[in-house]
Amino acid sequence: MRFFSKLTVLCNICFLFAVLFWYLEMSKRDPGGRADQLIPLPWLEGTLVILGYGAIIVNLLFLLVCFIYGAFKVKMNFPKWMLIFNIVLFGCQVYFHFYFK
């Protein structure tokens, strides 16, 4: 469970970078609709964006597992701030993916 919680936090941080890249690219888009890449390493930006947009699935699975562990009173061996961080970012992810765009 510790590995899964760390993976979820990493994906959520990538989500924050993906949203930042999306915002910066939208703000510098020219009137013709064309935007250049934000960073000169397209594979790095692509990896961060893929991990960031997939973070909602990983985060949902993590929160479901935490809910099941909590229902059966199984001890979760990771810091509570990770759970709070993931809950807050899950709300942000749902808003960004379903209501913002």
Short description:
With 101 residues, the protein is mainly alpha-helical. 75% of the residues lie in helices and 0% in strands.
Outline the structure in words.
It is a single chain. This protein is mainly alpha-helical and 101 residues long. The chain has one domain. Helices cover 75% and strands 0% of the residues. The protein has 4 helices and no strands. It is elongated and about 55 Å long. The protein starts with a helix and ends with a helix.
List keywords for this structure.
101 residues, mainly alpha, 4 helices, 75% helix, elongated
Please report which band the strand proportion falls in: under 5%, 5-15%, 15-25%, 25-35%, 35-45% or over 45%.
under 5%
Q: How many beta-strand runs?
A: 0
| Major beta sheet summary | none
Q: What is the helix tally? A: 4
Fraction of residues in H or I helices = over 70%
**Secondary-structure element series:** HHHH
Describe the global form: elongated
